[in-house]
Amino acid sequence: MISLKSDDQCLEAFCKEHCTTANEKFHKCQNIYETVQSRIEFAKRCETFGAEYLQYPHKQRIASACDKYENVYVLLDGQGDDETTTQNQSAFVELAKNSQLDSKTACYFTWTDCTGDVKIEHYRKNKRVHEDVAKELETKNNELHELVALLPSRSGNYFFLLATLNTTLVIDHKAVYSWKRAIFAPFMGDPVGILP
Asked: Same domain, yes or no, for 100 and 158?
């Protein structure tokens, strides 16, 4: 009788221990599955708009792309918080959409190891000109909002211009300078709104 109770207790302890281990492994596998499925769906979305998966070795493939294209954008999708990941992925998809018909621009995406950040890099002539395009866009968007806030109330018709500028993905600093000049041109005596 004592032996039977002892065997039952041992069996129960054994089951509890292995059930916990099995549950932990199941949750790890489920997380991996969800991550992979998310990446598969994102890859399909990118490929719909002409973006391609960038295989290893990254540096050599980026250099090769720079030989063919004037502008090369690469989404490095690493380990980031949900907000940063969503922001960069959305910006990249918009960039790919806007670049579909541009024969001088190529968009690539890839996944980095667990320590890599989520960011979009911009290359031109084999040199990285922007390390984090989404941050650049956010900064430029904030600058435009600040500029419009400085305009007098009689310039309400320039809010249309701002809405147009916010939907355009422009990375070049010269273009932002042109936007500033276009916004302020009417106050500088240019009736058309764009200075030469």
From this structure: no
User: In Å, how far are 2, 45, 63, 118, 194 from 113, measured between CA atoms?
Assistant: 55, 21, 21, 11, 46
Angle formed at CA 90 by CA 72 and CA 112, multiple of 5 degrees:
60
100 and 36 within one domain = no
Residues 61 and 103 in one domain: yes
Final residue of a structural domain among 84, 107, 131? 131
From first to last of the 196 residues of the chain, give the pLDDT tens digit. 445 567 778 888 888 888 888 888 999 999 889 988 988 999 999 999 999 999 888 899 999 999 999 999 999 987 778 888 888 899 999 999 999 999 999 999 998 765 668 889 999 988 999 888 877 767 766 666 666 666 655 444 455 454 444 444 444 444 444 444 455 444 444 444 443 4
115, 78 Cβ separation under 8 angstroms: yes
Query: 63: Cβ–Cβ under 8 A, 6 or more apart, which residues?
Result: 126
The answer to whether 106 and 72 have CB atoms below 8 angstroms apart is: yes
Statement to judge: residues 57 and 17 lie in one domain: no
The residue segments making up the domain with residue 14 are: 1-48
